[in-house]
Amino acid sequence: MAKRIDVADLNIYYGETLAVQDVSMSIEPRSVTALIGPSGCGKSTFLRSLNRMHELIPKARVAGKVMVDGQDLYAPDVDPVAVRSQIGMVFQRPNPFPTMSIYDNVAAGIKLNAKRMRTSELDEIVERSLRQANLWDEVKDRLDKPGTGLSGGQQQRLCIARAIAVRPDVLLMDEPCSALDPISTQKIEDLITELKADYTIVIVTHNMQQAARVSDTTAFFNLRGIGQPGQLVEIGDTATIFSAPANKATEDYISGRFG
Amino acid sequence: MNSPRTSVQPSDLSAVLSERLFTQGSLPRYAPGVTLAAAIVVGGVLHLSGVASGLAAVAVVVLYAVAIYGWSLAVEGARKAKNRVVTTVVTAAFLLALLPLISVVITVVGNGVGRLDVEFFTYSMHGVVGEGGGVYHAIMGTLLITALATVISVPVGMLCAIYLVEYAKGKLGRAITFFVDVMTGIPSIVAGLFAYALFALIFGPGVRMGVMGAVALSVLMIPIVVRSTEEMLRLVPAELREAAYALAVPKWRTIVKVVLPTAGAGIATGVTLAIARVVGETAPLLVTVGITTGVNMNPFDDRMATLPVFAYRQFMSPGLPPEPAIDRAWTAALLLVAVVMLLNLVARLISRLFAPKARA
Question: Is B289 within 8 Å of B304 (Cβ atoms)?
């Protein structure tokens, strides 16, 4: 059920400040798209505008079109809650619900929405999601323990399990490995590669190697100057972007000559 | 010879080195004790020669501070000398703050423990003249009125705090915050008069009901509940709300199922402390609920007795002989102190037992 995303002339604002200017890009289904670029260039802001999380910040707004399989996310009668049920998100810092057990964290998307479901069915979803997140073997004996008792890497995989338990079509990841050690990062990267078969994945990362390893398409965002809005500089095949970028700024950034 | 330091003569060098040592003089460990003992002796002499005891105590502290400063300055240097003086000031301030508390506890326990018997807990004052009698009716009254006040203030206060934290933006939110702050400072007698005026408008003047007291106490409780709940809700990380939104959970469910449980222990602690704050209020109950000698379990009809008003009444109009009434007043006061202390302990227990746990 992976979906295609087409962004056209997207401008993202914080109050009167234009944060991201004129982004147009297409995100292919069943692929991983990496967003790279220096801090403050609007990668995360752009990512959050793809499931209408951006507008949760007071006075934040978006102008332009985000089409998901032909439906405009920002059409007037669109329910942001319905959007988020199909476009899941994993955050920079692992954020399991501290009042809930591991099991309840994975089931949170279902339980919090008070969907009625048989226990056996829910058990199945929890196990499937945890297996998909490569966490099942580590936690199967302590599903009733608090989710916050896990290590950072396990917590992040728990959050991924939580996000995929509601079977979204698109998975947005905002620097999911930036707080993790290399081994946990490796596990999550493997997981991303596995999940690609079923989901459209968009990942923001500061780690160029990670972008090169996991993504099919890479988009480079940059600021034109200090105080200027962020822009999409270049988007293309990951191999091409990393070997023969069309833009000088992209080349400088990925080769470490930036700034 | 590429830097000025290396050009120092050998004899100067040792002088320079000795100035740059890590060690420095320090007072012996017994120094504070000895100084304090000396200061106390001087204070004692002053007291014996006719100086009032309070003044002598101040003299002890001042003498100690001056002496330790001078001694430390001579041996240890300016920084440590200042440190010793400030330590003295902080300790003295701490003891000063503790003094009234200890004094109150000792006096109340000393005077109140005499009547702490079974009769005191099981009898009302109905038909009691002179010795005997109890506060059963006042305990019940305090419990009922405080419970009612809690039932009124907790929903109002929590909903108000939820509005402020989760929904308010702009002027209305700021106005509510401002008026909650103003409410925090309302004198309790004004809250009582407000409740009396409100019920007099509805039921006519001279009305007396337990619920009037509950309303008066709510006026005092609501701002405390709002404040503490607000603080607890703001402590809930925005990331948790975002996590819930990203799972397509609507805002109201996020608040009910994620935010409130996460802040639950803190909110419960705040509510308990708010109860502790109002349970000893006297003035608003005096003007709204009044006092009675018998048991009245119906807070919607007629006067009720409460512990603070009972203590006040027994003390102000003890009758003849006055001693039994004064004793009852002390024991009622002891009971109130114990209740407040118990509520504070319960609050600590709640926050320890029900806070979200980090480790399995």
Answer: yes
**CATH number for position A250:** 3.40.50.300
Residue B218 pLDDT greater than 80, yes or no: yes
**Domain covering B121-353, topology:** MetI-like fold (1.10.3720)
Which A residues in the span 149-178 are in contact with B, Cβ-Cβ below 8 Å? Answer: 149, 159, 162-163, 166
Average pLDDT of A141-170? Answer: 91
Three-state DSSP at B156 gives helix
B247 touches chain A (CB under 8 A): yes
Task: Indicate the number of domains in chain A.
Answer: 1
What is residue B302's DSSP assignment?
A: S
Q: Does A226 touch chain B (CB under 8 A)?
A: no
| Per-residue pLDDT tens digits for A234-246 | 999 999 999 888 8
b/e per residue B169-196 (b: at least 16 CB within 10 A): eeeeeeebbeebeebeeeebeebbbbbb
ipTM summary value: 0.88
> How many Å lie between the alpha carbon of B232 and the closest alpha carbon of chain A?
15
Read off the pLDDT of each residue in B300-305 and give the average, rounded to a whole number. 89
Q: Which of residues 123-162 of B touch A (CB under 8 A)?
A: none
Whether the predicted pLDDT of B132 surpasses 70: yes
pLDDT at B7 over 60: no
Q: Which residues in A lie closer than 8 A to residue B170 (C-beta atoms)?
A: none
Q: Do A98 and B247 touch (CB under 8 A)?
A: no
